[in-house]
Design brief:
This protein has 319 residues and is α/β, with parallel strands linked by helices. It has one domain (5-307): TIM Barrel (Alpha-Beta Barrel), CATH 3.20.20. The chain has eleven helices and eight strands. Strands 6-5-4-3-2-1-7-8 form an eight-stranded mixed beta sheet. The two termini are 34 Å apart.
């Protein structure tokens, strides 16, 4: 796989500082039941990296402090971590909002019987990846048969009350199928609602549009096809300074499977950790002791992906 990191320090993204951290986003590991073309963490069935027991114990202690309002669990497929359920229960018992970034196809895996019911019982907010409502587009990006498995997963969640507007939140995630910016989020949400409702009887709360980042698997594809510079030009030309105030790195701290701290999960993939005064990477141990407000955020040219056009974050468009 081609490395995009040498190409991401040319355009001079403006400096940013943190406000603090209300969201604790944790990558539980890179193992996944899918291998999607756009995946910025290169997740897949053969990946073995996962958060260790010592780090899980540190997370449980942090959850109990009340410092954070949201626990955002991601991967890979975060549900494949053996202590996923324990983290969810602890966070919900402490009053935190819990987000599960779910690929939907995980719900029908043989070893995940009862997963959907568990999420519903705990009141977990499901953020489900569905890059298109058309089967051919989903299968081209995520693998043969994934669209039908995704629809089945959505129907399972709907049957449990998700997407009904009564507390069990189901948000879908769209990302482009190529080297272009997402269309306006509101219009695309209306299209999704019509096509999924009429075609499959699917209900959901909101659609979140995410820009493909020029890193990892997608960035490597851009380089190999000679499209990297053109895509970076698209991102830079679409830069909107107003988006700088709303980017997720101002209020979120991202934790990788080794317990290291990052400003976002994209920086995880570029190995740009938060660092202490001596240049050492910060870890969960430091998070319990150090204030984050006012710290300089590590930025590179991939940050144009979050600030181009309508903007992009883990919560969808910024404007």
């Amino acid at each position: 796989m081609l490395d995009t990191r040498p190409h991401l320090d040319r355009l001079g993204f403006p400096p940013l500082t943190r406000r603090g951290a209300s969201t604790l986003q944790v990558n539980l590991g890179y193992r996944c039941n899918l291998s999607c073309n756009h995946c910025h963490v290169n997740a897949g069935p053969k990946r073995t990296e996962q958060l260790g027991d010592a780090q899980v114990e540190q997370l449980l202690a942090l959850i109990a402090t009340g410092r954070f309002t949201t626990l955002d669990l991601t991967g890979g497929a975060p549900e494949l971590h053996p202590r996923f359920g324990e983290l969810v229960r602890a966070a919900r018992a402490a009053g935190l909002r819990v987000i599960d970034r779910c690929n939907l196809a995980i719900l029908d895996e043989p070893d995940q019987t009862g997963l959907a019911a568990f999420l519903a019982e705990q009141g977990v907010e499901v953020v489900a990846s569905l890059p298109c409502y058309l089967a051919e587009n989903v299968d081209a990006q995520r693998g043969k048969g994934v669209h039908s498995r995704s629809i089945a997963g959505l129907r399972t969640l709907n049957a449990l009350g998700y997407g009904s507007g009564q507390g069990r939140v189901l948000n879908l995630v769209y990302n482009p199928g190529g080297a272009f910016l997402p269309p306006p989020q509101a219009q695309l949400e209306a299209d999704y609602r019509q096509r999924l409702g009429e075609g499959y009887g699917i209900r959901f709360d909101h659609l979140l549009t995410l820009t493909n980042m020029p890193i990892a698997r997608f960035g490597s594809q851009l380089l190999s096809h000679g499209e990297f510079e053109r895509y970076m030009q698209t991102l830079q030309e679409g830069f909107q300074p107003a988006n700088l105030d709303a980017v997720m790195c101002r209020d979120l701290v991202s934790v990788d499977w080794q317990g290291r701290l990052f400003d976002c999960d994209f920086n995880q993939m570029l190995d740009l950790p938060m660092r202490g005064e001596g240049g050492e990477p910060l870890t969960l141990n430091d998070l319990a002791e150090r204030p984050l407000a006012g710290r300089t955020i590590a930025v590179r040219d991939h940050c144009y992906g979050c600030t181009a056009g309508q903007g992009s974050s883990c919560g969808g468009a910024l404007v």
